[in-house]
Amino acid sequence: APTLEATPLEPLLAVAGDSVLIDCVVKNLQNYTIIWRRVVPGSNKTEILSAGEVRIIPDPRFSLLHQKGHETWVLQVQKAQVNDSGRYICEVNTSPRMQIYRLLSVVERTPSNSKAFPVDHNYT
To answer: Which keywords, in A-to-Z order, does the entry hold (predicted)?
Structure first.
């Protein structure tokens, strides 16, 4: 049967505007499918972000990175926003389904955590 126990559990921290990689390690997937979900803030509902290597959510900032034959499935969030913060779920559609939660916090960009100065200032 598949296992998720090799998945890292530490929370992920990102700065708004950066790309975030949320990884899930699935051993022995067989013919099952990996589904990424996120918990809708303020509810117990979840929304499906991807199934297998296909993005389900309309938001093109989300994508699924996976190399054939590898055990790591990565949900990539480009240009992360503060409201992307929350709980993400890596799920295998076994019966009963297996899930592992990853916590993401996206913080506002400040001068102290910026990697570089923004280039969009016009000095007029």
So the answer is: Nucleotidyltransferase, RNA-directed DNA polymerase, Transferase
Cα–Cα separations (whole angstroms), residue 11 to 1, 54, 106: 26, 25, 11
Q: What is the pLDDT of residue 121?
A: 47
- CA angle centred on 64, ends 63 and 66, rounded to 5°: 150
Q: Please state, in angstroms and rounded to a whole number, the distance separating the CA atoms of residues 14 and 24.
A: 17
Cis peptide before 8 (omega within 30 of 0): no
